[in-house]
Design a protein that fits this description.
The protein is mainly beta. It folds into two domains: 38 residues; 152 residues. 9% of the residues lie in helices and 48% in strands. The protein has three helices and 13 strands. Strands 4, 5, 6, 7, 8, 9, 10, 11, 12 and 13 form a ten-stranded antiparallel sheet that branches. A hairpin with a 5-residue loop joins strand 2 and strand 3. The model has no long low-confidence stretch (mean pLDDT 91).
Length: 212
């Protein structure tokens, strides 16, 4: 405790400044949170992570190619990806958080996926930043084109955002596909710009169909 006394009990929950505990005999105790030492107050915060609203967005800018009569004009777009995280719960949370976003692309004429962009940032949610945090990456160019009657190139297809606490525990996530979060550990090993399959295991791009 803050005054040096020791109490051994199991943490249950903390609501409105009151901490609920259960001692060895099963008896429930309620004590003011400010009576605990700093180390235990940090533990309580880690056990009671904040509720977060996660928003992933993208902006695009078109690139214009010079017109030629000899071939179809390729289409090119620059994508900039952005993640915004906001705390929606009212309880104070002073612990550092880490956010990762994975911007996912796909193939025209294929079934493989591409890691278009990846960003990882540490942050705090405080009154000074209005309990919200935003970060974005550099523009990523995606080009699609026609070759021998086939449409080839890359396209945007989805995202995954993961938020972890200071202990590395995932406290919130948002994804365009459940498979991305399910295979998170595999996805973390894929370099930016490389291809992967449905299990988020790195693989080669799909071969173009044979043209006669």
């Amino acid at each position: 405790m803050a005054d040096g006394r020791t109490l051994e009990a199991e943490f249950m929950t903390a609501i409105a400044g009151k901490v609920s505990l259960k001692n060895k005999k099963g008896k429930r105790l309620k004590l003011p949170e400010n009576q605990f030492c700093e180390e235990d107050r940090n533990f309580i915060q880690l056990e009671m992570p904040p509720q977060l609203d996660i928003n992933f967005s993208k902006s695009t800018k078109q690139r214009v190619f010079p017109f030629t009569l000899s071939q179809e004009i390729p289409r090119s777009s620059y994508f900039t990806f952005k993640t915004a995280i906001k705390k929606t719960s009212t309880k104070r949370y002073d612990q550092e958080l880490t956010a990762e976003y994975f911007a996912i692309g796909g193939e025209f004429g294929g079934e493989k996926h591409i890691l278009l962009d990846y960003r990882k940032e540490n942050f705090f949610l405080t009154k000074e930043n209005k309990n919200q945090f935003e970060f974005s990456g550099n523009p990523v160019e995606l080009i699609d084109y026609a070759s021998n009657g086939q449409r080839l190139g890359k396209k945007y297809s989805g995202y995954l955002v993961v938020v972890t606490d200071a202990c590395g525990k995932i406290i919130a996530h948002s994804a365009s596909s459940k498979l991305l979060f399910k295979n998170l550990e595999n996805l973390r090993t894929v370099p930016v710009g490389k291809y992967f399959d449905d299990t988020c295991t790195r693989s080669a791009p799909t071969r173009p169909k044979r043209w006669y």
